[in-house]
């Protein structure tokens, strides 16, 4: 799975992963992270997620990174926002009060590109990546985040052979393998969601569990 895959998804509007409503797990579990107002929240592989607006409305600074210029442009256009643009290293950066959205490759991010991050909201980043890229993603996250940073992570557990990702199956054992060596891992909730997500049943799934984790970088 290379960058062309995601560019084509956005260009062809094949974005079933995008949800217009604010994420219910974000709203329910965010208070458990105890992140002070004014801190910066990182949203990797953010697409045009409106969750960034929700975080801004709670009083946080938001920093996102997204590969597709189509997604970035759609985020601002659909929400009636106008941003300043500049070029920094590998990224075109779109900025407005409370938000900095970097258009470019997540794997080229350096700590200086992010600055001081207090928390990460990962709804559709880890699960968007195949196994080898998930390992690289976790390594890069470890390089970017300082001790004490919280990660609110959403993952799926289902029989991988029944459906080709994304979203990919990332069971609890893999979450702990990827993050357990450098984060405290707490499972906040686990819920069977196939009845609520019939399109996944149509893709061949017999079961699907959505899991939410609170990870704290050591």
From TrEMBL:
Its EC number is 2.1.1.67. Belongs to the class I-like SAM-binding methyltransferase superfamily. TPMT family. One of its GO terms (biological process) is methylation. This is Thiopurine S-methyltransferase. It catalyses: S-adenosyl-L-methionine + a thiopurine = S-adenosyl-L-homocysteine + a thiopurine S-methylether. S-adenosyl-L-methionine binds at residues 10, 45, 66, 123. Pfam families: TPMT (PF05724). GO terms for molecular function: thiopurine S-methyltransferase activity. It is an enzyme of class 2 (transferase). It is found in: Cytoplasm. SUPFAM superfamilies: S-adenosyl-L-methionine-dependent methyltransferases (SSF53335). Keywords: Cytoplasm, Methyltransferase, S-adenosyl-L-methionine, Transferase.
